[in-house]
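Q: I have two molecules that I believe assemble together. Could you output structure tokens for the complex as a whole instead of separate predictions?
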Amino acid sequence: MNQKTLQINGICKQYGYINILKDIDIKLSDGNILTLVGPNGAGKSTLLKILSTQVRPTKGEIFYNNIPVYKELNIYRKKLAFLSHKTFLYDDLSAYQNLLFFARLYNLNDPDKKVLELLDFLKLNSRKHGPVKYYSRGMQQKLTIARVMINDPQFIYLDEPYTGLDSRAEDLLSSIIFKKKEEQSIIVLVSHDIEKSYNIATKIMILNKGEVYYSGDKKDITLPQIMKMYREVLEQ
Amino acid sequence: MRAYFTTLIRIFYKDLVLELKSKDIINSMLFYALIIIVIFSFVITSGSKVYNELSVGIIWIAIVFSGVLGLNRAVLIETVNDSIVALMLAPVDISAIFFGKVLSITIFILLMEIIIIPVFTVFYNINIFAEGIFPIYFLLFGTYGFALLGSLFSFMTIKTRAKELLLPLLLLPLIIPILLAGIKGISLYMGAETSDDYIKWFKLLVAFDIIFTLVIYMLIDKIFEE
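A: Yes, here they are, computed for all two components at once.
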């Protein structure tokens, strides 16, 4: 199986005269989990949006498996998943209809089978035909995770994924992140929960005012050191 | 090409299922359009020279203003939970998503028209199909043009704070050719004595639709990018 890589070179993003990101470089490969840490307005979410092709960078390039992302945009998009604290679901559709719609949009071979498997895995089978708007928050969170996993993504971008999750949904998400890591997916995670994100990361990057303040492997830095640097950034 | 139309139909089908469940779009449009038709029927008196033109104008006013309401609802579905982001990240042609949405809005407005035109016939004592079925083409192409530009501006204003205000402000001036062609074309056709004059208005409507379809098709990726 080919090695998966994700590389961004000299990424800059400007909105008008405001520099949101300045010269960011990242190189990730199979099974890497990069945690992006930083204060509000540091550019974490913008970087995630650039990686997930929601926003184009002003300067710089993104490569997946050494291919420029914008050269084969739809092939890259077929392999990526983006999770934020919003569900991206249609409230009036049922869980089954929501997942089937997205599975078909991704042109999966057997969308029906995939949807039923996911519903079964997340124990949502009993309510699969009920409208999502009547689901509890926890069930909606599970369904959101199912939607993200529908295309078996290899590049996963998580923006504050633990925000608003109950403890069971948190555990479920963590177990899925570890499962995808074992499957050699590349994961980039933005979180304010430094301890939790440190525990699951293989690489850490601290952003401050759109610039890289620190970047390195988890093995090279301890949690107290990260916390110290984070506090320094906050004080600046 | 097959994949393109499959995506377009999937978007339309999803919207149709959502509408069958909630009936939000058609109900709100229908209610508003009927109110316009009924209220104006008490104001306009028959017998004047411009009665036909004025009455046809009211059909179009009802279509446009209730259509704006429908557009807002149709886009709201995509923004409530940010599902638009998931659509944009899907590995499909963005223009297929957009034209799928245009198709749904066009069909919903046409469904509304099927209900309001008989009501209009009763209240105004005018049958726009008395001379033939050609007004159907005016309604079809006019509705498509309106849905096309309406969807474009609805999505462009999706992230703005005053989107309900901005949409009609941006949209209404641009659809004046549709309104002119729709009103003049149908009333000339109903007048019948002026031979084929209505055809030039129909040509204007078709040209408008073709030009904007092509322009939007070419630019939609750029428009949706951010």
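A: One point stands out. The CA atoms of residues 47 and 176 of chain A lie 23 Å apart.
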